[in-house]
Amino acid sequence: MFSKETYIARRKKLASSVESGILVFLGNNESPCNYRDNTYIFRQDSTFLYYFGLDLPHLAAAIDIDSGGEIIFGDDVDIDDIIWMGPQKSIADQAAEVGVGKTYPFARLNSFVADALAKGRTVHYIPQYRADNMILLANILGTQPAAVNKEASVEFIKAIVAQRIIKEPCEIAEIDRACDLGYAMHYTSMTIMKPGMIEQEVVGAMEGVVISGGYMTSFPTILSQHGETLHNHLHDKVLEVGKLCVIDAGAEIASHYCSDFTRTLPVGGKFDSRQKDIYTIVSTANSFAAEMARPGITYREVHLAASRLMLQGLKNVGLVKGDIDEALALGVQGLFMPHGLGHNMGLDVHDMENLGENYVGYDPGQERAKQLGLGSLRMARKLVPGHVITDEPGIYFIPALIEQWKADGKFTDFVNYSALEGYYDFGGIRLEDDILITASGCRRLGQKRLPITVEDVEEAMAS
């Protein structure tokens, strides 16, 4: 939790960005795993955390734009709770710690909102991603759960995005800490990975680092020798010499700020010549994108420039042919990188995407492309100081996609399909760092950068 003054200032700024009405914030509840009392680890809603800071279940809050009033809704514990959890601070005491002077029992939320609606006031809320909160809002608003998100306040969404997307110094310090833990997590994989291990053994060691030093992983760990499957969560394979293992994983610390790194490691500790060629293209693109990222340029431009560099590299090794600029314009790069260069990151590993990816990642007037790859770019905005984004180029050889394009006769002037047949067993390579846009350019977050060159990776694995 940050200082009381931090939360007061955040709420004041938000309230000044919405014209009138009531702003409603729903915290998260505990979610049962397989019966009511056996729950998943609790994770508070990030928007609630950002403005109210209280990290416990079954809370809601409201800000009255017109009067300036602020309320936290929640229930004090009873003796049964105390028996199991020990004495707890009252809701009023906890609210005071974040600068809120008025509290009501949670049940008052319904009548509070109903009263505002009866007076013809606007009730603003953001899209909900948990079923229990969708049902709660539907009951309060007198509608169906399926209709709740359709009526979410665009004005409220835009005000939150405009504020949260620029990270405060206290947030940047926390993200640096999350990246330091993410570094330790990934470096562990480099030092323990050996042929004959099960992928899950590496996952377990990495996630143990996070649990020991933080709160939880920032998303389910991706670790696979089948890196051509972008989000491969299967960890059941035996590590084989000569394979490439893509590891995309992040740490979430106690304040809930996140990191998100990807490295691709050669099982056995050495890249072969073909792997070195493709790996070097991707690592060069990663560094090139960071050098290019600065205030005033759009991340869409950075994505396209990094894609062009990779197409040229693929042409140099005989997998792409023809005019590179024409190939780029047509979207040939989507065959090899069917995802975007990066996304926003902060309290969520894909920051604020529950509010709508286009609101978060696109400036007014920017349109999402329809091309494979570019169309999946989650962050296209013009960069400004305070943006925290990922830089994650990749090259993948996806046999089914290559075969489909080949059967369709797609881009035969630019893709060397016969040469690609020799890469059907290659897998994929992705290399990801987290960067902060500064006044003059960008810097990588965390104290140290994970090994990324061929030589540095091989040296780390040899240790």
Produce a short descriptive summary.
With 463 residues, this protein is of the alpha+beta class. The protein folds into 2 domains: 161 residues, Creatinase/prolidase N-terminal domain (Creatine Amidinohydrolase, Chain A, domain 1); 294 residues, Creatinase/methionine aminopeptidase superfamily (Creatine Amidinohydrolase). 39% of the residues lie in helices and 13% in strands.
Q: What's the number of structural domains?
A: 2
The major beta sheet can be summarized as: 5 strands, mixed
The percentage helix is 25-40%
Task: Find the structural class using helix and strand composition.
Answer: alpha+beta
Number of strands: 17
Please tell me the CATH architecture of the largest domain by its name. Alpha-Beta Complex
Radius of gyration: 24 Å
The CATH class assignment of the largest domain is Alpha Beta
Low-confidence stretches: none
Strand order, main sheet: write it out.
6-5-4-1-7
And the CATH topology of the largest domain? Creatine Amidinohydrolase
**What is the end-to-end distance?**
38 Å
Overall mean pLDDT stands at 97
- The outline comes out as globular
Q: What is the helix tally?
A: 17
- So, the CATH homologous superfamily of the largest domain? Creatinase/methionine aminopeptidase superfamily
In percent terms, what proportion of residues is strand? 5-15%
